[in-house]
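Figure 3 (text version): structure tokens given as input.
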């Protein structure tokens, strides 16, 4: 394609490049990152004029950034979208924006929304009775040695377990969780310090981590999704 052939598409490049950069932040969750990017790609095929393309593209970029960046940066709270909401909520909101602005492409937008709900359902099914991922808990602090790492299951729930050793291991783990926006929560055992972090606009995604102290220099870290 010649330079003259590229010029009419400059606004598409201006929208797609930052969208790809935002999606790259979700490199640990490739499917979620792809779904976050898809509405922008679809919009670039629907927009009729550069002015409309840029204006609506900016709205879609802001929406995409909201659904991707806070979570990937380890932030928490009811204003931070959960990963699963990228599939169904983000695609639905973005499809509505595109439909209002373009007034065409209904079949493509409907397919996008349906695919989002399908992947959301598949994600929930895959997570049922499966051990959680890192969930912002790992990697563990570098100054601690990991003596064992495993997952356990029981009562229709699985959890990750990391046994650690090192100077002041219990306190190091507690500070590690606080730095990752986990907040203290009540625990039944006095040896256990519990921390939880919640995300999700519509449905809460709550991850809790327990730090069990065995000695000044040994501790167990367990985490699970509530």
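Below: residues designed for each position.
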């Amino acid at each position: 394609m010649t330079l003259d052939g590229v010029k009419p598409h400059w606004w598409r490049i201006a929208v797609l490049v930052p969208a790809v950069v935002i999606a790259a932040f979700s490199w640990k969750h490739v499917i979620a990152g792809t779904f976050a990017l898809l509405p922008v790609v679809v919009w670039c095929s629907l927009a009729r004029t550069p002015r409309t393309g840029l204006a609506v593209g900016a709205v879609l970029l802001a929406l995409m950034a909201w659904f991707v960046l806070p979570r990937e940066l380890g932030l928490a709270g009811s204003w931070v979208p959960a990963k699963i909401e990228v599939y169904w909520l983000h695609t639905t909101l973005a499809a509505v924006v595109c439909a209002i602005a373009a007034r065409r492409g209904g079949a493509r937008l409907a397919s996008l929304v349906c695919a989002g709900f399908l992947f959301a359902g598949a994600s929930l099914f895959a997570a049922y009775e499966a051990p959680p991922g890192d969930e912002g808990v790992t990697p563990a602090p570098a100054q601690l040695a990991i003596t064992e790492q495993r997952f356990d299951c029981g009562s229709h729930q699985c959890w990750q377990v990391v046994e650690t050793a090192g100077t002041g291991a219990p306190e190091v783990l507690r500070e590690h969780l606080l730095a990752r926006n986990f907040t203290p929560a009540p625990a039944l055992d006095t040896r256990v310090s519990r921390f939880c972090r919640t995300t999700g606009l519509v449905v809460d995604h709550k991850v809790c981590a327990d730090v069990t102290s065995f000695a000044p220099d040994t501790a167990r870290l367990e985490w699970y999704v509530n």
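Residues 50-72 form the longest helix (23 residues).
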